[in-house]
């Protein structure tokens, strides 16, 4: 029979079975003893009920009914892989983190790519931001750099993050998404969303592959060097594969044929030895430059201009190993922007500050209090006073569980203490809404200086495909209050598009 050529993902079981050709394993219960028979339950005669003493059956069914855990509240659909980070340039003048300590040093990493709004089974090729999260298993603990494929984000104060996510998720009454009124209502009421909205509806809104997009730390972080000197920084991961995006039409067609398109693409590339790679760069701003900056360097709706803060090379990372169990290694991986190492610190970026709380909190709910003991999340060494709790695997060898103690328990680390920055801060405690800061200069530059004619028209068309479905008051507000302020040419194109739009035209998912 003629079989079409199959890809590495389709061949997974065949390849796996080749490794087990000699000895077949016996079926065991979850506690390891052999099962007497797998094809039939234990009954009293042919038509009799099943016995409670069929405990291997009960064990299997009881495990099956607990197979699923809550999916991530955002970034539920994703794919991941393993590899390494290698230092190519010396940045010890900025950071004392050991992960950067010498050229050539390699650190194992795990990376998870994702989309933000859809659920676990959603199609990959949707118009959305893509998550780009990296876990570094460093000598001095886990460092998670949890960013996106865009340099900016929709809102800048974590107080607005749950609301923004609600408007891109399902309408709770209709259970439908996108809800065009919710989305454009929020965009027009919070103009700081403009910059990311432009990228969301631009060509980069639907990457062709997780391997063919750049990555960004997006939020502002801080570095501390060995002398205790402090710098602010932004991370950039420059893709070493050609950047490729999908048009709305291509993306919709693929979503119908292969909803797991990005996941399959990443798996096959790695299985075929076509290892994706990115070069890591940082932008550095001194505290003095930050104080004098005309725009807020901690506002994640703005970029730091590269002409003023050039990209400084740091290293490269490569993905060369697929997970062998998606659930254990990718569904249970827990990234957290609060997982930092000495030499890397948070900045006052208000979005980052909120994130420092959110991830550990959600992991303890989604994965349990001991999720950091799972093999994929575990650092090389943990020596502290935390013990026990749900699903404990490690007891730290009977070491003391209290501090201070007289029994050679772990002690404070002088290096970590020396690298902990001392920040002189003062100010009035109050809620300051910075949403009215200049929201249109950078989107205007993006439109006029970066986008060519084709990109401008596709941006307008993609906006029309969502905006034409919103109510007319919100449509008008979007054109007048947002798009015209980016550039009147954009407002004009969108107005024309809406006037000409077909009521049943297709729309991005
Ligand atoms: C205060 C604002 C934010 C909050 C409260 C928040 C919260 C969350 C939560 C609860 C998750 C699910 C984590 C899990 O269950 O594993 C998540 C995932 C994620 N977030 Fe955020 N987030 C915020 C802002 C951001 C920003 C600004 C970015 C990008 C720079 C970002 C990037 C990601 C990524 C990439 C993931 C997926 C991580 C993975 O692959 O497991 N988030 N976020």
From TrEMBL:
Short name of any one Pfam family annotated for the protein: Catalase-rel
GO BP of this protein: hydrogen peroxide catabolic process; response to hydrogen peroxide
Binding site for heme: 359
GO MF assignments: catalase activity; heme binding; metal ion binding
SMART domains registered for this protein in UniProt: Catalase (SM01060)
Residue stretches making up the Catalase core domain: 28-411
Active site: 75, 148
EC category name: oxidoreductase
Cofactor(s) needed: heme
Any one cellular-component term (Gene Ontology): peroxisome
EC number from the UniProt entry: 1.11.1.6
Alphabetized UniProt keyword annotations: Heme, Hydrogen peroxide, Iron, Metal-binding, Oxidoreductase, Peroxidase
Its job: Catalyzes the degradation of hydrogen peroxide (H(2)O(2)) generated by peroxisomal oxidases to water and oxygen, thereby protecting cells from the toxic effects of hydrogen peroxide.
Protein's name in the database: Catalase
């Amino acid at each position: 029979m003629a079989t079409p050529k199959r890809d590495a993902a389709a061949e997974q079981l065949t390849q796996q079975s080749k490794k087990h050709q000699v000895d077949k394993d016996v079926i065991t219960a979850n506690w390891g003893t052999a099962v007497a028979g797998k094809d039939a339950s234990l009954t009293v005669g042919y038509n009799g009920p099943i016995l409670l003493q069929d405990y291997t059956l009960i064990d299997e069914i009881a495990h099956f009914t607990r197979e699923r855990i809550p999916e991530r509240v955002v970034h539920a659909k994703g794919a991941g892989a393993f590899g390494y980070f290698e230092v190519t340039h010396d940045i010890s003048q900025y950071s004392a983190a050991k992960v950067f300590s010498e050229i050539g040093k390699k650190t194992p990493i795990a990376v998870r790519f994702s989309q933000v709004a859809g659920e676990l089974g959603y199609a990959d090729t949707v118009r959305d931001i893509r998550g780009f999260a990296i876990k570094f298993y460093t000598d001095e603990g886990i460092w998670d750099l949890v960013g996106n494929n865009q340099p900016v984000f929709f809102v800048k104060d974590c107080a607005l993050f749950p609301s923004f996510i609600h408007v891109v998720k399902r309408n709770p009454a209709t259970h439908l998404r996108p809800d065009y009124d919710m989305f454009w209502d929020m965009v027009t009421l919070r103009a700081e969303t403009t910059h990311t909205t432009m990228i969301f509806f631009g060509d980069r809104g639907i990457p062709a592959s997780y391997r063919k997009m750049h990555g960004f730390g997006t939020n502002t972080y801080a570095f501390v060097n060995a002398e205790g000197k402090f710098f602010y920084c932004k991370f950039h991961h420059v893709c070493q594969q050609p950047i490729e995006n999908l048009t709305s039409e291509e993306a919709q067609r693929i979503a119908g044929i292969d909803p797991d398109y990005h996941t399959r693409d990443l798996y096959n590339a790695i299985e075929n030895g076509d290892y994706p790679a990115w070069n890591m760069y940082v932008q550095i701003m001194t505290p003095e430059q930050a104080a004098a900056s005309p725009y807020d360097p901690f506002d994640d709706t703005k970029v730091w201009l590269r002409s003023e803060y050039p990209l400084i090379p740091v290293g490269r990372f490569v993905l060369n190993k697929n997970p062998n169990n998606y659930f254990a290694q990718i569904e249970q991986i827990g990234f957290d922007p609060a997982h930092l190492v000495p030499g890397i610190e948070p900045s006052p970026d208000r979005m980052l500050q909120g994130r420092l709380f959110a991830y550990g909190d959600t992991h303890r709910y989604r994965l349990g209090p001991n999720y950091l003991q799972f093999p994929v999340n575990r650092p090389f060494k943990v020596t502290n006073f935390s013990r026990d709790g749900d699903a404990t695997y490690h007891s730290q060898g009977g070491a003391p569980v209290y501090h201070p103690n007289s029994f050679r328990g772990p002690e404070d680390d002088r290096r970590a203490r020396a690298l902990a920055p001392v920040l002189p801060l003062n100010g009035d405690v109050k809620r300051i809404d910075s949403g009215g800061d200049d929201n249109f200069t950078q989107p205007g530059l993006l439109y006029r200086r970066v986008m060519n004619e084709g990109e401008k028209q596709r941006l307008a068309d993609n906006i029309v495909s969502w905006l034409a479905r919103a109510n007319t008051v919100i449509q008008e507000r979007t054109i007048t209050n947002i798009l015209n302020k980016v550039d009147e040419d954009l407002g004009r194109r969108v107005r024309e598009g809406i006037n000409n739009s077909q009521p049943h035209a297709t729309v991005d998912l």
